[in-house]
Design brief:
CATH class of the largest domain: Mainly Beta
Largest sheet: 6 strands, antiparallel
Order of helices and strands: HEEEEEEEEEEEH
CATH superfamily of the largest domain: Galactose-binding domain-like
Shape: globular
Strand content: 25-35%
Number of strands: 11
Distance between the termini: 13 Å
Number of domains: 2
Number of helices: 2
Radius of gyration: 24 Å
CATH architecture of the largest domain: Sandwich
Length: 231
Amino acid sequence: MRKRESIIRMGMSMFVAAGALLITSEQIIAAPIAIDNASFQDNDITSFDGTLGGDWVESEGHGFGILLLHNDQDPLNAFDGDQYAALSNRSTPAGDTNFSQKVLTAGIVNGTTYTLSAYFRRINASQPEDGAISFGFSDGTAVLATYNFDGTTNVLSHTAWVKHSVSFTATTANAGDDLYIAFQNASSSGASLNRVFIDAVSLEATPIPEPATLSLGLVGLGLLMKRKRIN
């Protein structure tokens, strides 16, 4: 009899553990969302080029506001591959030089956390304000989340590529909407070609646990508590 009770108790414990493991897995697993030409390798260039390629949509407030650069053209090497994007702050007003991409069509899911990341570097060691840039999400009409490098209190590195990220969690207000990612100038200095370099863009979606998975863990916990009360 005791042996049978021990086996039942062990089985219930394993059931609870399995449920807890499934809940934890659902919470921490982030699924990548495809970004076309994420490392700016599509257009193979040999000189300065203003077209990033792929599905990137560009808006330049002035000539050479957005550039595609190759390792051989600049003292800087790409973080990934041999090409990278450059965004200039020589523009008025702030925000009129930008590039963006539609990554989801009617695909935003309520409760899902979306995280946009990229590697950044600025060109000028003596003028941190040259690194003023913002990047984030929109639904095509309204900004959903943005991260801003103001060049004063939040400054980009000029010595190394550094990864930065911005996230937002979808609500019922934007569930089912399109999702865009965008990078834009956050300065209007106009003094020189104050470039910010961008490479290796990535996007992840972390969903909330499925109700069935959550229920599994709760049922297992309830059975174990019930068993303890009987004993």
